[in-house]
Amino acid sequence: MYDCVASSATVLPPPGMENWISTTFKYLAPTKAGRLKAIRSQAIVHVMNRATGQATLFNAIRALRPMAKSGTGLATVISGARTGCSFCDRLAKTPANTFGRIGSRTCANIAAYDGYHGVVMFEDHNPLRFRRTYFKVDEVRDLMNVSNRWAEKCHAEDPTARFFFLMWNCLWKAGASMIHGHAQMTVGREFHYGKVERMRRDALCYKERTGFDYFEEFIAIHKALGLVTEWGQVTAVSHLTPAKEREVILVTNRSDNPDLPRAIWSVLKMYAAQGVKSYNVAMYMPPIGKSDPKWRDFPVLVHLVDRGDPAVRTNDIGAMEMYASAVVATDPFAVAELVHRLPGPDFR
């Protein structure tokens, strides 16, 4: 399923750069000579999933490269955004979907992605609540319940609206235009969103070519490498070809699996411990409503990924990531070790 190639990037800095390199990359080695050696010969690993074409280039040194930062503190930006926040005054300042709202928790997106596009607004304005000790599993469970009810409302209104996609963008580095904590939901008609459909087709092609179930093989390979943690009926995979830093994929049998909210919460708490402030969560799932044989073997996949420091001006996705291979600094084996260390809560 995977191809892997290791190589070395040779970089030849002039003498005038040596002091700057030693200062900038001081965590690479305890001595100046060691730092220069590491820069001159950089270990690169390129991994490709042959079934899906997803590929990632790894170089740990990229995590240490200098980045321009904005001067305003994140706490100040979040606090300042309370003034005039429409999600804090949601009934007066947010639009409703055609079928109304789920309590006061949801609204229609003012600039829709699709015919059905909604938002779940969190009670707390602060999107960094997940980093606090008072952030509880029940909050994730509530998000899942509200979003599923919203999708069911869409499907009841239009039976062709079956292709549900849940996303949670935390802060602007992750693509959020509103600072107030929120997740978004879309339900497509007739066919699923492109990358979800591509995953289904790739899995089908893999089974036709090899005779094996793609998702079972995907988990088995990661498990053999020590990249899997089992939490009840949820399998946490530290991804071999992550889209960006610290990607974890949760695999389960259904979106209303009672173990899933705690698994999502656990990864978010791991992120908090690692200093993550901005992240994406995205859920792939079969169509809602009547069963479809084309999607029979497709599980529920929840992707979580760190999107970097919100204070850094540089975007973490450029042309390389958009059109070639992802470029990542974090070793998935290091991510797996962090996930393994998470307490094994009683999922029941």
How would you describe the overall organization of this protein?
The structure is a single chain. The protein is α+β, with helices and mostly antiparallel strands and 348 residues long. It folds into two domains: 2-64, no CATH class; 74-341, HIT-like (HIT family, subunit A), CATH 3.30.428. Helix content is 30%, strand content 22%. The chain contains ten helices and 13 strands. It has helices at residues 18-24, 32-40, 74-80, 90-93, 137-157, 194-210, 214-224, 260-273, 319-323, 332-341, and strands spanning 2-10, 41-49, 55-58, 106-108, 116-121, 161-169, 182-189, 228-231, 234-238, 248-252, 279-284, 300-306, 326-328. The strands form two sheets. A nine-stranded antiparallel sheet has the order 4-5-7-6-11-12-10-9-8. A four-stranded mixed sheet has the order 1-2-3-13. Helix 1 packs across helix 2 and helix 5 (137-157) packs across helix 8 (260-273). It is globular. The mean pLDDT is 95.
Gist?
With 348 residues, the protein is α+β, with helices and mostly antiparallel strands. The chain has helices spanning 18-24, 32-40, 74-80, 90-93, 137-157, 194-210, 214-224, 260-273, 319-323, 332-341; strands at 2-10, 41-49, 55-58, 106-108, 116-121, 161-169, 182-189, 228-231, 234-238, 248-252, 279-284, 300-306, 326-328.
**DSSP helix count?**
10
Low-pLDDT segments: none
What is the second-level CATH architecture of the largest domain? 2-Layer Sandwich
Number of strands: 13
